[in-house]
Design goal:
The protein is an alpha/beta fold. It folds into two domains: 91 residues, no CATH class; 169 residues, 3-Layer(aba) Sandwich (Rossmann fold), CATH 3.40.50.150. The protein is built from eight helices and eight strands; from the N terminus they run E-H-H-H-H-E-H-E-E-H-E-H-E-H-E-E. An eight-stranded mixed β-sheet has the order 1-4-3-2-5-6-8-7, with helices on both faces. Strand 5, helix 7 and strand 6 form a beta-alpha-beta unit. Helix 4 crosses helix 5. The protein is globular and about 55 Å long. The protein binds S-adenosylmethionine.
């Protein structure tokens, strides 16, 4: 398979970095006042990568105009980003990613987020969902991603592969107690091979669900990105056995051509 066959998750750049297209306000990719001075981020393992920001977006745009020999999938991705209303909205409203609107729309539909919640965000980079949770009044947010996430005041952000054996324990160690919400936007790079991609995303969603069952307090909720057509049987059985209600929902901000949708499990039985 050629490199050109690989495409990044819906909200990532083709070079593997978080999109950062939501860089707003002061132009450094963070909402003004949501401090780059905050040091609550940790790289647990893995290579350091610079998160996207407005400068990066500008450089990318210049590359669209000038790069020779760039891959067609990258060009398509950039053109789509530059014309995407949610990318523009994120830039204007100070969200780091267009993905923020998916969580906002999930919340609008199911009324999930409340002030004072303890939230775990799996696959957080560049941080749009973290921003949404904090804006909704979460008292604690712990995020984890393979990629480095620029600090966000009020959140603890780990750079780590969530599939590594010690990752769940490391996340738990950062939390002050059981979680009210486990939200997962975990998305592997797609290979272009439909069933392989499906298996990889389902595997991540299953890991996230097992983590939720071990971590949530009674009444808590779980969200995970899955493929359209629904969650696979095993995941669905796990969720139905442990939660009062399980629903699927594809927010408007999720691109219609993307096969992603979200499973929402509410009322953790404990
Ligand atoms: C769609 S993006 C998340 C966007 C994010 N929710 C936001 O609002 O900005 C999916 C993320 O999952 C991360 N990811 C994929 N596999 C992972 C893994 N095994 N461990 C940790 N993060 C992973 C990717 O690095 C990527 O940043």
């Amino acid at each position: 398979m050629s490199d050109d066959d690989k495409t990044p998750p819906d909200d990532q750049t083709p070079n593997g970095e978080p999109s950062g297209e939501g860089a707003g306000g002061d132009g450094d990719g963070e909402i003004p006042g949501w401090g780059s001075s905050d040091k609550r981020r940790r790289r647990v393992s893995g290579p350091m990568k610079k998160g996207g920001d407005a400068r990066a977006a500008k450089q990318m745009f210049e590359r669209v105009k000038t790069a020779r020999g760039r891959k067609t999938s990258s060009t398509r991705w950039l053109q789509r980003q530059l014309n995407d209303p949610y990318v523009k909205k994120a830039q204007m409203e100070g969200y780091r990613s267009r993905a923020a609107y998916k969580l906002l729309q999930l919340d609008e539909r199911f009324k999930l987020l409340r002030p004072g919640m303890r939230v775990v965000d799996l696959g957080s980079a560049p941080g749009g969902w973290v921003q949404v949770a904090l804006k909704a009044g979460a008292s604690e947010v712990v995020g984890i991603d393979l990629l480095e996430i620029e600090a966000i005041a009020g959140a603890t952000l780990l750079q780590k592969d969530f599939t590594e054996e010690d990752a769940p324990a490391l996340v738990k160690a950062e939390m002050g107690g059981a979680a009210d919400a486990v939200i997962s936007d975990l998305a592997p790079w797609t290979t272009g091979h439909k069933s392989t991609d499906h298996l990889r995303i389902v595997a991540l969603a299953e890991m996230a669900a097992h983590f939720a069952v071990e971590t949530l307090k009674p009444g808590g909720f779980f969200i995970a990105k899955v493929f359209q057509g629904g969650s696979d049987g095993e995941l669905l059985n796990l969720l139905k056995a442990n939660f009062e209600k399980v629903r699927h929902f594809k927010p408007d901000a999720s691109r219609s051509e993307s096969a992603e949708t979200f499973v929402v499990a509410m009322g953790f039985k404990g």
